[in-house]
């Protein structure tokens, strides 16, 4: 998926956790999730948008994610992670494309998503 199509994916928000809502549990969706409130638990979604006031405490597995608020947990995004100004991520991230804009805070390890071929080559070298 190109960067242009990644942005289009995030335009297709289907589920919203509003700014006054707190949700605990696990969410799995093949669509895009937007969080403006507080979410505690793990997320597995095609795309995730976290608004400026949004908070996530848990792990996120997605294709693309745009963080404007706070995440405490690990993020795996097959294509891209974009951290906006004043966003904060505390945890390890794995992605193909990482963008951290000025004013964002990141504490953790970052690593690149491995393709199947890279994974196989890495195993054979060991």
Explained architecture:
- 14% of the residues lie in helices and 57% in strands.
- It is mainly beta.
- It has one domain (3-125).
- Strands 1, 2, 3, 4, 5, 6, 7, 8, 9, 10 and 11 form an eleven-stranded parallel beta sheet that branches.
- The longest helix has 10 residues, at 116-125.
- The chain is globular.
Please specify the SSE layout and strand pairing.
Layout: H1 3-10, E1 13-17, E2 22-35, E3 38-50, E4 55-57, E5 60-67, E6 70-72, E7 75-83, E8 88-90, E9 93-100, E10 105-107, E11 110-112, H2 116-125
Parallel strand pairs: 1-2, 2-3, 3-4, 3-5, 4-6, 5-7, 6-8, 7-9, 8-10, 9-11
In short:
14% of the residues lie in helices and 57% in strands. The chain has 126 residues and is mainly beta.
- N/C terminus separation: 31 Å
Average pLDDT for all residues: 88
What is the number of beta strands?
11
One letter per element, helices H and strands E, the order comes to HEEEEEEEEEEEH
- Structural class of the secondary elements? mainly beta
- Percent helix, as a range, is 10-25%
Oligomer: single chain
Work out the helix count.
2
What is the gyration radius calculated from CA atoms? Answer: 14 Å
Low-confidence stretches: 1-5
Q: Report the β-strand fraction as a percent range.
A: over 45%
Number of domains: 1
- Biggest sheet record: 11 strands, parallel
Shape: globular
């Amino acid at each position: 998926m190109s960067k242009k199509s990644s942005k289009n994916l995030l335009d297709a928000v289907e589920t919203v956790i509003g700014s006054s809502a707190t949700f605990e549990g696990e969410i799995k969706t093949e669509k895009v999730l937007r969080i403006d409130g507080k979410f505690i638990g793990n997320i597995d979604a095609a795309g995730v948008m976290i608004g400026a006031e949004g908070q996530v405490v848990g792990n996120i597995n997605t294709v693309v994610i745009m963080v404007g608020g706070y995440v405490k947990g690990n993020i795996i995004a097959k294509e891209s992670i974009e951290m906006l100004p004043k966003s904060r991520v505390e945890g390890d991230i794995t992605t193909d494309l990482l963008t951290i804009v000025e004013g964002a805070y990141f504490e953790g390890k970052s690593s690149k998503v491995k393709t199947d071929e890279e994974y196989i080559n890495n195993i054979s070298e060991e």
